Amino acid sequence: MTNFKDTIIIGAGISGLVVAHNLKRMQPDHDFLLLEQDSGTGGVIKSFSDNGYLAECGPHGFLDNCGESRQLLADTGLEAECVRAPLKTFVRYVCINSKLMMIPQSPLKIISAPLISWPDKFRVLGDLFKKPLEGEPTVAKWADYRFGKALLPYVDAVFTGTYAGDFNELKIDAVMPGVRQLEKEHGSIIRGAIAKARQARKKKAQGEKLQMPSMTSFAGGMQRLPERLTELLGTGSLRLNTEAREIEKHESGWLVKTKNETFVAKNLVLGLPINQSLGLLAELDKTAADMRVPEAWIGTIVFGFEKASLPPGFGFLIPESEQRFSLGTLFSSNMFPNRAPDSHIVFETLVGGRRHPERLELDDKTLITEALADVKGLIDLPDTPDYTKILRPSGGIPQQEKGYTKLLNWRNTLVQNNPGLFVCGFGWEGIGLNDMIKTACSVAAQISANPSQHQDQADVKKVYF
Ligand SMILES: Cc1cc2nc3c(=O)[nH]c(=O)nc-3n(C[C@H](O)[C@H](O)[C@H](O)COP(=O)(O)OP(=O)(O)OC[C@H]3O[C@@H](n4cnc5c(N)ncnc54)[C@H](O)[C@@H]3O)c2cc1C
């Protein structure tokens, strides 16, 4: 049986859900169908609750500094359900020489903090005299060139915290295009940052409200976001347990084959992680199969303790040079209310990532023992936890390494040559929820504006989540 639709969207993670939500909002008559292979929506967004504890298998939150995400919260009525942890008041730590070093929240305080030695601080100023680095350097090579070796563990920690990645592999142009732009425009990151700060002061003087963003989630955890979007979709426009197995370009439109059905649509949206998109796109271009990107998989170990306390702040990150077992720990009960039973704390320790996938193969007992020993070496805790749980990942984080720019160019050419095809989702325009929401809004707007238009040439994302 063949079903005809205006638009088929493959994947009901946040990307596919936001495309669907916006299509419905902008064009109530638009006949679309969202196909999801799993029995539920949300993709890698999955909250876990048990015995009064609340933890996350995927994202813990998103920063409230993205217009599209704020609009989504307003449209869905979720604004009232948000819980927020302001960056202004929540410090982070980086583990250096087996000690937690607090990272202050303002640039001036960072300069005066004893994070690196004075000679190393002078070396950081070398940035003022360095020409932009040619080519497509890795993050590590670029940071070493501009600021010197002493900052590398801190830079490593940042990319462990966001990509669970290896900064010796991630490409600076792909993961921080905005910073690279500053380098090109101002000849130095420090000069660029000063120019930006001046602009911000001007805006403030003109009455514009400027404040540091907050990490945002919901009382019941991040899963509330896809749950609410699914509620608003209503029945009829979502098919669960339906894997899209093949796509084909056809005279009458885009053909999507599932196990039992074939759909034809004017527009086809892939809202999938890069590698899953490439699997389907190989039908259109055989070279897709050679473009797979590495992924970083993270396991989360949840620890609950009674009558214990955590240092203030969000938690800590650990650079690879420390040679420890875990990637870092989130102080979950500090960040958001009601994450643990009364008089208990909860924290989530992250393991694996791009560098240590083998650790996810360990049995539960070993994972818990190793992770706990790691944390106890850094913060004071009672001997035995009251609660432990391992959350194994359902998806990996696509890594923007060698070949990523070529991959984006290939995708852009493909969508240019195939009107009605839209390729968005995890890893294409960044990896954060704000990136996904922003791109999904743009895809829905393009379809609504002209139902057979092709996707805008998307450049590498400009904003880091
Ligand atoms: C462990 C982890 C922690 C993270 N932490 C943060 C964070 O703190 N803050 C932040 O902003 N971001 C974070 N992220 C990133 C964020 O979660 C992602 O950007 C976002 O959830 C990706 O959404 P998506 O819809 O593009 O992809 P996905 O969530 O992967 O959804 C894709 C969907 O498509 C379905 N699908 C796949 N193939 C098919 C097919 N052939 N047919 C039908 N359906 C199919 C899948 O089942 C899935 O439901 C984290 C990610 C991970 C993995």
Task: Provide the descriptors you would attach to this structure in a database record.
single chain; 465 residues; alpha+beta; FAD/NAD(P)-binding domain; Polyamine Oxidase, Chain A, domain 2; protoporphyrinogen ix oxidase, domain 3; 3 domains; 7-stranded mixed sheet; 15 helices; 21 strands; 33% helix; disordered C terminus; binds flavin-adenine dinucleotide
Describe what you observe in this structure.
The chain has three domains: 2-45 and 222-294 and 400-449, FAD/NAD(P)-binding domain; 81-88 and 298-392, Protoporphyrinogen oxidase, mitochondrial, domain 2 (Polyamine Oxidase, Chain A, domain 2, Alpha-Beta Complex), CATH 3.90.660.20; 106-205, Orthogonal Bundle (protoporphyrinogen ix oxidase, domain 3). 33% of the residues lie in helices and 22% in strands. The chain is built from 15 helices and 21 strands. Strands 1, 2, 10, 11, 12, 13 and 21 form a seven-stranded mixed sheet that branches. A seven-stranded mixed sheet has the order 8-7-16-17-18-15-19. Strand 1 (2-10), helix 1 and strand 2 (32-35) form a beta-alpha-beta unit. Helix 2 crosses helix 15 (433-449). The longest helix has 17 residues, at 189-205.
